[in-house]
């Protein structure tokens, strides 16, 4: 097939239809800006399923996204988008980089959700940026920033409720957006690689922190998330 792009966890292929791409989910796991690398057997299969289920749910809730359909164990057909160079992070509970950056204790519940932007750049290691940086660097305009913030807030509301029904706490997550026919839509993936999900009762981590922190049973955590949400 016609490889367009290869990232750390996914490959993107062109298709016969110029408006559609295929996203292929790999088993590669990376953390800390690619410094830590490994393979997690079957991760691509599980993340493709989880992302597909979540994108379908978001469609039902009126949130436009690139997902069209799953086409194989590791592949989804998506609308072609030009990715906006932003990582949009939403945090409900303290974990990960914000704890190190601001001395926040892991597990602290925030009185309101926190929205952060990072500039997607391997060269500069995805630095945190604000809305002025986004405008000045021509990453997005004011109207687009407004749309992205509204999407992120709505996705948080939908996913918090969805996961809580299966006894999972949505701690934080990262979204990416793209432009399809000059309209902004949600893109990329939503999976335990890009969300922190804790068991509601035990606070057991069921996401990529199992890999980052060498907690073991990485795929078991991801499969637990899939089992709970596909019921
Ligand atoms: N995240 C991601 N890709 C990134 C950075 C972060 O998917 O390149 C997700 C991460 O899995 C977590 C949330 O965004 O759910 C917040 O991550 P954080 O800033 O704490 O970064 P990390 O701990 O990954 O360095």
TrEMBL record:
Show the SUPFAM superfamilies listed in the entry: SAICAR synthase-like
Gene3D superfamilies in UniProt: ATP-grasp fold, B domain (3.30.470.20), Phosphorylase Kinase, domain 1 (3.30.200.20)
**Which EC number(s) does UniProt give?**
6.3.2.6
One annotated GO molecular function? phosphoribosylaminoimidazolesuccinocarboxamide synthase activity
Q: Which InterPro entries match?
A: SAICAR_synt/ADE2_N, SAICAR_synt_PurC, SAICAR_synth, SAICAR_synthetase, SAICAR_synthetase_CS
| Broadest EC class assigned to this enzyme | ligase
GO biological process assignments = 'de novo' IMP biosynthetic process; cobalamin biosynthetic process
Q: What does the record give as the reaction this protein catalyses?
A: 5-amino-1-(5-phospho-D-ribosyl)imidazole-4-carboxylate + L-aspartate + ATP = (2S)-2-[5-amino-1-(5-phospho-beta-D-ribosyl)imidazole-4-carboxamido]succinate + ADP + phosphate + 2 H(+)
Which Pfam families does this chain map to? SAICAR_synt (PF01259)
Q: Which segments constitute the SAICAR synthetase/ADE2 N-terminal domain?
A: 3-228
Listed A to Z, the keywords are: ATP-binding, Ligase, Nucleotide-binding, Purine biosynthesis
Q: In which pathway does it act?
A: Purine metabolism; IMP biosynthesis via de novo pathway; 5-amino-1-(5-phospho-D-ribosyl)imidazole-4-carboxamide from 5-amino-1-(5-phospho-D-ribosyl)imidazole-4-carboxylate: step 1/2
Q: Does the keyword Kinase apply?
A: no
- The answer to whether UniProt assigns keyword Repeat to this entry is no
- Family the entry assigns: Belongs to the SAICAR synthetase family.
Q: What is this protein called?
A: Phosphoribosylaminoimidazole-succinocarboxamide synthase
What is the scientific name of the source organism? Alkalithermobacter paradoxus
